[in-house]
Specification:
There is one protein chain. The chain is mainly alpha-helical. The chain has 2 domains: 49 residues; 218 residues, Orthogonal Bundle (MetI-like fold). Helix content is 79%, strand content 0%. It contains 12 helices and no strands. α7 crosses α8 and α11 packs antiparallel against α12. The radius of gyration is 27 Å and the shape is flat.
């Protein structure tokens, strides 16, 4: 009995020591995180008092925008339609391009590169997934560059106008959709895949009849969400000459027509609100 009590006491003491070590480790990492946050806040000039001191200037700017010049709405109809067209075509092109890219960006559907006489070492180095890694790297480039940067590049190529905005949204959205859908494909139910493989189906048949049907609902949901985001992006691409409501917004700001600027912001808000409502209904039907 004494031996059992001693064993329990030793186990409790060991657990107490482990808890103290975890606590000390957590305090150490927490202190380091606070120090890093304090240093970065100091480096970027994070100062809430500066916002309070500049509140008068901000209030002055806002008061110049009210009341909005509602008669300017009549001149924003074409820009609004153009914004929707940019978002629709940009998202549509992204959907088309992301279908093959998402298959290449998933480990279970990407083409494998095999060398019979060097297969073991080749797979140990991960080189049989070369297509997967190259595709993921390419998608990281597309996602990592903002739509405004792409818009500047395409404006220099195709000139001012909505076409540059369509290309900018399409390229960036392709990177986002392909990554999301690639991860969705990697997470499909293996049972259906193994059942197809057991019948002797080829890899293409497995992809068409076991993988894609499982990923379609999520792909549609991601596409609808991406269209919602594209509307928001299209409203500001005009700042760099890619058409839409952003062009009208920056024009009124440069001409100091703040009442018309307020009208542009109001129209953008209504457009985003309407798009969010429509997309939520679409997503609900898909789910």
């Amino acid at each position: 009995m004494t031996t059992v009590d001693e064993s329990v006491a030793a186990a409790l003491q060991l657990e107490a020591i482990r808890r103290r070590r975890r606590l000390v480790k957590a305090l150490g990492w927490g202190s380091l995180a606070l120090a890093v946050l304090w240093f970065t806040a100091r480096e970027i000039g994070l100062n809430p008092f500066a916002l309070v001191q500049g509140a008068d200037h901000m209030w002055d700017f806002l008061t110049r925008m009210f009341p909005p010049d509602l008669s300017y709405i009549l001149f924003l109809g074409r820009a609004t339609v153009e914004t929707i067209q940019i978002a629709v075509w940009g998202t549509l092109l992204a959907v088309v391009f992301s279908i093959p890219l998402s298959l290449l960006a998933a480990r279970n559907t990407t083409p494998l590169i095999r060398i019979p006489w060097f297969n073991e070492h080749w797979e140990r180095l991960g080189l049989h997934l070369l297509v997967f890694h190259v595709t993921r790297m390419f998608l990281n480039v597309l996602r990592g560059i903002n739509e405004l940067i792409f818009a500047l590049i395409f404006v220099s190529a195709v000139g001012l106008g909505p076409f540059a905005g369509v290309l900018a949204i399409a390229v960036h959205a392709t990177g986002m959709l392909s990554k999301f859908c690639g991860e969705e494909i990697e997470g499909v139910d293996r049972g259906q895949v193994e059942a197809m493989q057991a019948t002797g189906a080829s890899k293409m048949q497995v992809i068409l009849f076991a993988v894609i049907p499982q990923a379609i609902p999520a792909f549609i949901s991601y596409s609808i969400f991406r269209f919602d985001v594209s509307i928001r992006s299209a409203t500001v691409l005009g700042l760099v000459g890619a058409g839409g409501l952003g062009f009208s917004l920056i024009k009124t700001l440069k001409l100091f027509r703040y009442h018309e600027t307020a009208t542009c912001i109001l129209v953008i808000f209504l457009l985003v609100w309407a798009t969010d409502w429509v997309c939520s209904k679409w997503r609900a039907k898909v789910i």
